[in-house]
Amino acid sequence: MNNKQNKKMNKNKKKNKKKKNNKSKKKNKKKNRMMNKNKNKKDEQEQKEQEKEQQQEHEELKKEEQ
Predict the structure, then answer these.
(1) pTM, to two decimals
(2) Cα(45)–Cα(53) distance, rounded to whole angstroms?
(3) Which segments show compositional bias classed as Basic residues (predicted)?
(4) How does 17-36 read in b/e, with b if 16+ C-beta sit within 10 Å?
(5) How far is the C-alpha of 1 from the C-alpha of 4, rounded, in Å?
C-alpha cells in the first residue's frame, strides 16, 4: 500500500472509532438518565411515605391529648 492509501485508511479508522465512542456515550447518557429518573421516583415515594407517617403520628398525639 502506498502512503496515500495508508493515510486514508487511518483517517477512516479514527472516524469509525469516534463514531463508536459517541454512540456508546449516547447510550450511557440515556442509561444514566433512566437510572436517575427511577431513583428520583423512589426518593419521592419514600418522602411521601415519611410525610404520611408523620401525619399519622401527629393525629395520634392529638387524639391522646383530647
Answers:
(1) 0.54
(2) 12
(3) 1-40
(4) eeeeeeeeeeeeeeeeeeee
(5) 8
* pLDDT band, residue 54 (cuts 50/70/90): very high
How confident is the model at residue 38, as a pLDDT? 94
Locate 34 and state its grid cell.
433512566
User: Which amino acid is located at 54 in the chain?
Assistant: Q
Question: H/E/C letters for each residue in the chain?
Answer: CCHHHHHHHHHHHHHHHHHHHHHHHHHHHHHHHHHHHHHHHHHHHHHHHHHHHHHHHHHHHHHHHC
